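The step that takes the researchers longest sounds almost clerical: writing a folded protein down as plain text. The outcome of that step, for a single protein, is printed below.
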Amino acid sequence: MYVHFSHFSFCSDLLQSKAAPLDVPIFVDEEPPMVRSPVSFTAYDAGGNAHTFTPTFHHADYHSRFQSLYCPIEGTYFNKKPLHLADPSESIIAILTYEQFTAMSSTNLKALMIRKNVLVTGMLRSTRRVCNIVLLDACVLTNGVLLTHCSAVDFSAGPKGGRKSFPKNVVGTVEDLLESVKTGKKIVNGLEFPMLDAPLEHTAYTSDLAAWRITSGVHTCPQKSEYPKGNMCWGLAGSVNTFTFMHVDSNGYNTFLKLCGKKLWAFYCDGPMYPLSSIDVFTNPDFSLDDVLPQSDYGIEAVVLKAGNFLLMRANTPHLVYGIEACIIHGGHFYMMDLMQRSVQSLLHSFALSNFITNIMHHPSRALLWQMLMFCYMGLIKNVIHASDPFRHHLPDIKTMDGIVNLLSLAAMNFL
């Protein structure tokens, strides 16, 4: 089992010379003063190193919400340390070194991912590489063409009509994004730079890619269609102090990412009353996206992600993210046959609640799900995917109840 990682390449000079302003709405004009938190927080990375930070936001109401969401994180601590350090068997995060990850068999990795999110450490081979958000990464390039405009989340928008502050979706240029980050006057998060040149590598967990390869040109699957790389591989670039409230990734996707910078990544932990499989988990009166209510019974487990880390996050995993440092992310989505039960749960939540619980929709997911279903038809009904085929392990094991339910979940997703 292996996965390919391309190096970060920086292109600041190219960006600043070619990013011409566009006549489009840009980040909101006002630049309110920054409000520094009176409280500092400490979080831990996969190796047990402490990272202390003091959030600074444009508006004071962000601080009360951040503190509210941080209390459950400390509530999951055991002996004053997060579970991934104090009691790894009880953590929803499995920590692997790069060497352990690459040596792990496909069967063992999939079995681990059924139970936990996976965080791999030690991805960077050189300690000399310095990551700097001012040198915006090649994630803003697609096929060598500069994306002169981008969508972003601008956190400077204030409260209106007695309602709390919420970030505003805006459109601007890459130059605007660079300027906001360099001057420090705006908290902004540049969204989804499509990475059409990202390498596609078959792994133990990318069942959608295996199905696409096997089924192209078979039955109703077109021969010349291209894998929707623009939706499945993307980059993000954001300033320090970005704060994304609780959400799930769309379309039942699992997510992978590597980053440059530091993020606090916090995962929702099931409560006894409303597990994530419950249809009421996000609509019950005890849940709030941007706050933890006194009666809430769920936990939040967090880890600091930093350069050299690689995260595999399962579908239907509500999470919140805070930017400890300015950060660049290279990431993407995938479907894994052994996680289709989680995917259908996530898709049902986003189907019913839409933008309330997720932040974007990817329509090409429908083609991927159809080709995965055709992949199962070819392997399980027609029996044309032989035991020696390197992709056969992506088929569900219908000798087990889990395998049957994963297959039925995939079938159901094709109708949602």
Summary: The longest helix spans residues 365-381. The chain is about 25% helix and 25% strand.
